[in-house]
Fold each of these.
Amino acid sequence: MTNDLMTIPPVILASKSPRRQELLKLMNINFRVVLKDVDESYPEGLTPTEIALHIAEKKCHAFDEMVEDEAVITADTIVSIDGQILGKPKSPEHAIAMLQTLSGRKHQVITGVCILYKHKYNLFHDVSDVLFRTLSDDEIRFYVEKYQPMDKAGSYGIQEWIGLTGIIRIDGSYTNVVGLPTEKLYQALMRLR
């Protein structure tokens, strides 16, 4: 990859997710992490896609006054099954219940992304369908106890044991399920040049 291909503005990643940070590193993007506390509530009646986009944009708004020549990337990932949103689990028992809900069924992983650059907001999203095989209660408990998926929407990480042993099929972007649709992000960053 030539250097001029990556002549994008300096990047701030507003996410503490180690998975998103690793994806940006793998994309060969130089960035720094800056975190701000943002209320992640949303109005009732929004679709899962609208929720992910609403929260991603809300996270970007927190940076609008402090950045000028840097591109801020924010994201929000939601797991949805039958219209029900599975956020981050509140307890190990909650994580077990979520995984029991996902077991043997297809669900959607939706990531909303917002790029703030020069006070302009670029919003986009991606949706991936994920199918789990039927998981035993012992497998679910083992995963929750060993991997502590308390920081993950839907209570699982596709790159971890449960993803490697339990996911039958993905229709859509793998990196979207990890937490950042990298192909769409790359295209959006290239348009900032």
Amino acid sequence: MPTLILVRHGRSTANTSGVLAGRTPGVALDERGTEQAAALPGRLAALPLAAVVSSPLQRCRETVGPLLAARPELTLHTEERISECDYGDWSGRKLAELGDEPLMKVVQQHPSAAAFPGGESMRAMQARAVDAVRDWNARIEKEHGENAVYVMCSHGDIIKSLVADALGMHLDLFQRVHADPCSVTAIRYTRLRPFLLRLGDTGDLASLAPREPAPDASAATGGGEEDAAVGGGAGAP
């Protein structure tokens, strides 16, 4: 199955102003975020990308803009299900003032029970994002083969919830995961289980390029790519 390259959008004007942007329109990349987006094509240069999928929000589309310009053969696919969490009445409010809301403690410590006033629950957010990834995995594999690599540009809470799903973690633990703006999180999906290859990576990504399997590798190790090396050695997928 494919390798998913999750890119969090670059730093936005909401990030620097301490605002919970949510789905508020007109939230763009700031100067630093624009620089991060400009560096993304170089960081991904070694990877044979099959497709680019993005949240419909402006800051994500701006993040993948330089990548699409550098690789004109790629088409941008917009996916509503990986859009930011619908924070409802909290959208556009300062994070500093939201810290006094009783719900914020639930969001941080028991997110599976959190539902935003006028918005959606965090359970629903995770469910739609996981469904989107499963559907795109199947589509990419069908169109480009099982070793395909593709990019999905989304938002912090979406990426954290996808990591939790990949690791078999309960959603209540997902606040332990962190992904900086324009960081890369890579998940290799297989028939039996996903493997987290990168988490919040801001450096070189060349080692994520697909490799040809060594002759008789599975016979030598007693298993194929779906068997992790004991102790997490270099042979793990």
Amino acid sequence: MTTYETMSFHLETERLILRPWAEYDAAEFCALLSERGKGTPTVEHIRSSIAELLAATERTGIALLPIQRRDEEDFIGYCGLIIGRSTLEEPEIAYELFQRAHGRGYATEAAAAVLDAAAATGRRRLWSTVGVWNTPSLRVLEKLGFEQDHFSTEENGEVVWLTRSLP
């Protein structure tokens, strides 16, 4: 098994800061997840999830990071690397933003920073899995150079598997 460098857990772009999770992110994280339309998790449940994310980061050296806008200093979502449906050697890039933040290029900007951070770890390839219905997310991945690899059918419907080689 190849040894990889630890991913940078603090990334900055022109408009965004991606940083480690903090307990104070719990309420906003709850609000973000409630936009999925499947109910609102409790703040206590989310605090537990944040603790699990931090433990996974410690264990794996990769991270899913909160995104905040640089000027407004507000939480608008998350972006980072996860094992998800893939592996630690070829992790998935994942992101989700508040609907109010859609259409402004934030997902592309944050994901591009994560791609650079992933490449700096020595990884050679990333995956992403997206519901076929999620056209905006598929556009983001296309802009970032991801290409369709295959499809699978899961309990929530058809999923596109995309991949991107890293320099």
